[in-house]
Amino acid sequence: MSVEAAAALIIAIGAIEALYTLSPTILVICGQLDARKKIWLRFGVWLLLGLEFELAADVIRTAIAPTWLDIGQLGAIAVIRTFLN
After folding, report:
1. CA dist 58 → 3, 24, 48, 51 (Å)
2. For 23-63, how does the pLDDT look when each residue is reduced to its tens digit (9 = 90+)?
3. pLDDT of residue 59
């Protein structure tokens, strides 16, 4: 549970940072495409870190009380998250 809370906190921090950094570039319409791309990539790094924490939480949960359904779901989640990375 604490690992999931850490993941949510990481994603929230990334979202806040992205919104704070993006707010001045929203006001300027032209010429800020490069800045937006950098902000988007930085936010993507935060999201990937949060997803890694979520995967760790799933692994811990499955290790504590494994069922075949849990193991199958964990495998599917791991494949999807690996593909997203």
Report:
1. 9, 38, 15, 10
2. 776 666 555 677 778 888 999 999 988 988 888 887 887 78
3. 81
Spatial contact of 59 and 74, defined as CB atoms under 8 Å apart: yes
For the entire predicted model, the pTM comes to 0.71
Whole-angstrom CA distances from 38 to 2, 22, 64, 66, 75 are 30, 10, 40, 41, 32
- Please give the structure tokens belonging to residue 1: 């549970």
Q: Token pair for residue 36?
A: 């937006």
d(CA 59, CA 63): 6
- Is residue 6 within 8 Å of residue 53, measured between CB atoms? yes
3-state secondary structure (DSSP) of residue 17: helix
